[in-house]
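Aim 2, interim progress: modelling of the cytidine-5'-monophosphate-bound target.
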Amino acid sequence: MGRGRRSQLTSALGAVISLLSCCAGSGSRTRRHRNIVVFYGRMASNNVITIDGGAHTGKSTAAQRLAAQLGWDWVSTGAFYRGLACVADAAGIAPDDEAALVGLIGSQEFQVVLTAEATRFESKGRDLTGEIFTPRIGDLTPRISRLPGVRAGLLQAQRDLIRGRRGLVVEGRDCGTVVFPDALLKFWFIVSDEAAGARWAKSHQSTLPEALEHIRERNRRDAGRATAQMKPASDAITVDTSDLDPDAVRKLLIHHCQQAGLVSLFTASQSANAFSTIL
Ligand code: C5P
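Predicted structure of the complex, ligand included:
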């Protein structure tokens, strides 16, 4: 596929994603939080906090909670890659057929939608979010996410999500290194094998050895690929989530935000959890 065609497709995808996500997510989130979150800073195009790390380090839960507290939107960039793997699988496209995969990105079969609850994936208007989290798609995804054309095709769409939004908490593998290198704050999540395995085994009802095999293989592929490999940004703060529950992780992230001068506690009476940004 030529460069012009690819960039046309990428722009079309960006437009679809922006449109869908504006309608579906940001508005309702803002309304829901308008009484407890007060913003008085400027809106900046880099109002972004990134969370990167391996499988089952607790990134998604942390990103969702932090975003809710800030009144921002949260994005799972993994949903882009999982969604693509899912529709490619259904269409019988081989995981190494880069041209066919890039072609899917600009098609009606591929739509990413932001909501307050999740980064949803739709294909031709059908919500497939439940299907992108199966072990089969989890195994398939690193085999397509290693392809440079796929990553290039999805990059601008991920960056465009900041348009028209107060801010984003974005999680994935390369969010702080490639997607948003100018993010205000970057986290790198780590977890012990045992804790990650236990989380996976619980959510997929499998044994610990199976869980460990799956997680290690996925992390090996994501850290070993040639393009945008999974690694911490040089300015990322490392957070070990092995012994922390989701609320403790949220508090720790807020603490780091405060330390970095990004967030100050909003002490008005509405809520002890309410914050105002002072960016
Ligand atoms: O985060 P999640 O487990 O949903 O990611 C699924 C897969 O998507 C990862 O194993 C990785 O191959 C790919 N991914 C990526 N870059 C990102 C996010 C996810 O390559 N920023």
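Residues 55, 76-78, 81-82, 141-142, 145, 172-175, 218, 222 surround cytidine-5'-monophosphate (CB under 6 Å). The CA atoms of residues 86 and 131 lie 7 Å apart.
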